[in-house]
Amino acid sequence: MKKLILMLAMFAVAKTQAQQKYQVHNLSVVNPKQWIIPQNDTLDYELGAFDGQKALIIKRKIQNYKSASLAYKPGLNFKDGIIEMDVACTIPKGGFVGLAFHIRDAHHYETVYFRPGSSGTINAIQYMPEKKAEFNWWDYEATKYQAKAIIPQNKWFHIKVVVQGSKMEVYVDNAAKPAMVYTALDASLKSGAVGYWHGNCPQGAYKNLVVKSFN
């Protein structure tokens, strides 16, 4: 009897997942007239190419460990779903590149970013909620906010982030298992836009951003 109940429960979960619908937002085309892309004396961008592939190239002219900048299309109210994109830190020694979600503005969002220079260590991936004018990554250095992964340097890699409720799973380069599972997403940042995140990195390349929102 217990086995039958378990099988029925598993069937119900599988059926629910199969029936779950997505609303797809293809943000792979970056139109500067529709996007918010910071540009100032220390930061610049271009619609160029890296490794023979078209991309949004973000350049930081002056390095600053407190640096964090977003490029995103406003209007999306993403809560739960799947985010996929390709990213590369285009310098040999690495820098900080990633994505942001539940974006309210330039200083209120959640981010998952990657450190190619720390590939293979617990510092390779970091999650943090940003809610200050100054990017305060040092407040989220505890092990629970970080994860070990192999992050390519000076090369494209694929990211998939699954967000549902307070849980987030991060997959790197189409791996079957997540490199990071975090179960305490910030409750004050429940929804918002999705975009590219550029940290303290001389140059990063970003492309193929697709968001699937759970209906």
Automatic annotation (TrEMBL):
Annotated protein name in UniProt: 3-keto-disaccharide hydrolase domain-containing protein
Query: What UniProt keywords apply to this chain's record, in alphabetical order?
Result: Signal
Tell me the InterPro entries matching this sequence. ConA-like_dom_sf
Q: Report the leader peptide range.
A: 1-18
Q: To which species is this protein native?
A: Mucilaginibacter angelicae
Gene3D superfamilies the UniProt entry points to: Exo-inulinase, domain 1
Q: Which SUPFAM superfamilies has this protein been placed in?
A: Concanavalin A-like lectins/glucanases
